[in-house]
From TrEMBL:
PANTHER family: BLR5498 PROTEIN, LUCIFERASE-LIKE MONOOXYGENASE. This is LLM class flavin-dependent oxidoreductase. The keyword tRNA-binding does not apply. It comes from Neobacillus thermocopriae. Keywords: Monooxygenase, Oxidoreductase.
Amino acid sequence: MEIGIYTLGDLVPEPDTGKTIPAGQRLKEIVEAAKLADEAGLDVFGVGEHHRLDYVASTPPVILAAASQVTKRVKLVSTTTVLGTVDPVRLFEDFATLDLLSDGRAEVIAGRGAFVESFSLFGYNLDDYDGLFDENIDLFLKLNAQKRVTWSGRFRSPLKDAEIAPRPAQKEIPFWVGVGGSPESAERAGKYGVGLTMAILGGAPERFTSLVERYRQSAAEAGHPISNLKVAVTGHAYISSTNEQAKDEYYPYYANYRQFFNREHSVAQMSRSEFEQLAGPDTALFVGSSQQIIEKILYQYELFGHQRFLAQLDIGGMPFKKVAENIERLAVEVAPVVRRETRKLKK
């Protein structure tokens, strides 16, 4: 089991002071988080793409390239790339360059995007939401596999014996499809034989078992060996000395995050009792002691048999000091136990 962290780089006012840190400071803290994760022995560091003023990470490959220069072994991943509104050739070039700079540590997780601002921003039609995503996966995988590509599609100009440069340090850049709950996206990942990354941000994790089943069934129907398939789980997380302390410390930031991004819909502030339900021992919100987090990850492993877990630690205006403490707990107290126990279960 690979264990790592990811960020979306939200710029949310700190709940106590109402102050928002400058974008430049937030970016520097993201790079520092990658450095800490690498030094602590985590396996993966991810940065997600958004195109809004309340997020700072609009260009993950640039941020990950900066992180590559202060890390040595951690894998550097987009979590996720909004594939429908980026040219696949440019995306491949960016991540192949990152792969060379990092000595073979770049990966792409592609998603359709929780927000749709990028469609009008980059001149794409929202009516082509699904078609663009599917076509761009197809083209990226061809670019990944071949030094010269001839290709034609509906949404961009054709390629005729085009040189695809630079080539990455790895034979191919590992590619995953990110899914928030869409069966179609899970089936698409299986059809192409690429990894499946599930964002399980709350509720009962059991509801995602059908996605994994569809993914594996689709892969089998397409002739992809089941042994080659990979599943990852991502989720919000906060770790402290005890379950109660973790909930006490995390609630202001989690409620702040939810309130800030629902502000346009006049949603009421999340109550503590609602948060208690969301953070219960049988839910997918990873809040609690190290032991509680271990138990939740291992329970989900029994459900999904996944190979990777990524925690989003830095939401809601959380100070970097607390983020750094969580990185240390995840790496030192949680990861070794999860790796040991999943090795036993796999045998």
